[in-house]
Amino acid sequence: MLALIPFAVLIALLVCCISVFGNATLDGASQVSLFIASAVCVWVGWITKRLKWSDLDKEITTKVANCTPSIIILLLIGAISGTWMISGIVPTMIYYGLQILSPEWFLVTTCLICAIVSLMIGSSWTTIATVGLALLGIGKAMGFSDGWTAGAIISGAYFGDKLSPLSDTTVLASSVSGTPLFTHIRYMMKTTIPTFIVTLLIFLCAGLMMRISGSGDVRLFMEGLTHAFVISPWLLLVPVGMGVMIARRWPSLVVLFLATLAASLTALLVQPDRLREIASVSGYHGSLVLYEGVIRTIYDNTHISTGVGELDQLVSTRGMAGMMPTIWLIISAQVFAGALTATGQLQDLMAFFRRIVRGTTSLVASTVGSAIFLNITSADQFLSIILTSSMFKDMYAKMGYEPRLLSRSCEDGGTVTSVLIPWNTCGLTQSTVLGVATLTYLPYCFFNLLSPVVSIIVAFLGWKIKRIKPAFD
Questions:
Q1: DSSP code at position 468
Q2: What is the pLDDT, as a whole number, of residue 473?
Q3: Cα–Cα dist 44/51, whole Å
Q4: What pTM was estimated for this model as a whole?
Q5: What mean pLDDT is predicted for residues 296-307?
Q6: Spatial distance between the Cα atoms of 60 and 225, rounded to a whole number of angstroms
Q7: How many CB atoms lie within 10 A of CB 26?
Q8: What is the pLDDT of residues 270-289, one digit of tens each?
Q9: For the chain, percent of residues with pLDDT exceeding 90
């Protein structure tokens, strides 16, 4: 089947890139691979269908243009991740969360802490590489196996990442499917929250039954937070305010911008010393130094010294600049998707799925299965979400299903399973960061394992699934 040739080329290139570049694959190697695969796609289209360049140019331009809202949101996400950290909002949440750790409740608490942190910062990778590392060390001190602790960390981190309006995968899934961001998040709750509740019950029962004795000393971690930041429950008013705006269904761009502005003002009022530390203007004093600190927090990398290695990693931020590899990847993937569409190869793949889709359950199962398959073959969750959405978008529309069902199915199959695949960029990164092999933590990542299953079960039950027009035969 000629439509599979570009995928085969892409898979081969990504395997080589991961072997050579490892964790740095997303810095540019994946993007180059996508452009090469796009060229192969165009060549196949020209050979088989005598494709006109004007048609190709139009389709690629349309695909890239459709990503403009998500690119703007990603830039705001970079801004908000920096300002929320330096203003002390995220450190305050971590500080209070760490105080409730105990052996019997460690696993469920670990899962909850990672969920909350990931929900607030929108990044499972950052959560795992910072709070996750600290919790893994505490788990070792308490006597928990690395597999159980890593499973709790990853389950919580990916739950928060999946539902966070700051998450790049969440923004991506909603954008490429044509679903408003907060509509996508609210609809994901129908499958994500039940799955997370089951996950928490499993970790709770496991923690109570293991009879683990001992305690983890988090004093240094907490002292580092109080040394570097002003910690106060009043800082939590900013996320509360953001929650109110989300509940009132304000536009996501407005919510993210106002949340960034509120955090910037909070940093000026509460954390001026941190802004001075970030600023590097020589010869200026007072307000100009604070101004530079705020602006750098929004767009640039920041590093705060706390005296604790894991904490230094946590409070380091990337700002808008840190979003550029992701934006580059999205544009490259849309070029590939545009080439597949213009040459008709995407339609050929869709025709195969149409033959096996007979209703809601088979449609969702095919979507989830395709996302998992692309996670395995393309070795990247972003590609999995983009390509799955591109393959099924027209099919969902023709069968009369809302775009939010597509966006949710892509995340249920694509986002959460990426970390379970050893050669996927997520699995490779997390196993390296935690020092725990993928196959060691895989059996304990209950949220990630259950999410695809629950998605299909909900589709079978037809819960909250609406048809907006009759299905085709």
A1: S
A2: 40
A3: 9
A4: 0.72
A5: 87
A6: 47
A7: 18
A8: 999 888 888 865 455 667 88
A9: 26
Q: Phi then psi for 225, rounded to 5 degrees?
A: -65, -45
Burial class, 409, CB count within 10 angstroms (exposed 0-12 / middle 13-18 / buried 19+): buried
Q: Report the pLDDT value the prediction gives residue 216, as an integer from 0 to 100.
A: 46
Three-state DSSP at 467 gives strand
CA distance 264 to 93: 17
CA dihedral angle for residue 68, residue 383, residue 182, residue 162, rounded to 10 degrees: -140
Summarised one tens digit per residue, pLDDT across range 234-254 is: 998 988 888 788 677 788 788
Specify the DSSP class assigned to residue 317.
B
Please count the residues of the chain: 473
pLDDT tens track for 67-103: 787 788 778 878 888 898 899 988 887 788 667 777 7
CA end-to-end span of the chain? 25
Can you tell me the mean pLDDT for 405-432?
Answer: 86
Q: Which residue has the tokens 């408003």?
A: 180
410 token code pair: 């892509």
Tokens of 250: 């304000």
> Dihedral of CA 83/91/444/425: which sign?
positive
What tokens does 63 get? 């695909």
**Contact criterion met (CB below 8 Å) for 58 and 341:** no
Specify whether the CB–CB gap between 121 and 84 falls below 8 A.
yes
Three-state DSSP class for residue 302 = strand
CA torsion 298→303→307→308, rounded to 10°?
A: 80
**DSSP letters along 451-464, please?**
HHHHHHHHHHHTTT
Cα–Cα dist 383/169, whole Å: 10
Single-letter code of the amino acid located at 88: G
Q: Is the pLDDT of residue 213 over 60?
A: no
Q: pLDDT digit string (tens) for 419-434?
A: 998 777 788 778 877 8
Render pLDDT for 170-205 as a digit per residue (tens, 0 to 9): 988 998 888 888 889 999 999 999 999 999 999 999
Give the CA distances from residue 21 to residues 70, 177, 421, 423, 429, in Å, rounded to whole numbers and listed in that order: 27, 31, 17, 12, 12
Name the token pair of 425.
């960029």
Residue keyed to tokens 């990847």 = 329
Distance CA 351, CA 183 (A): 29
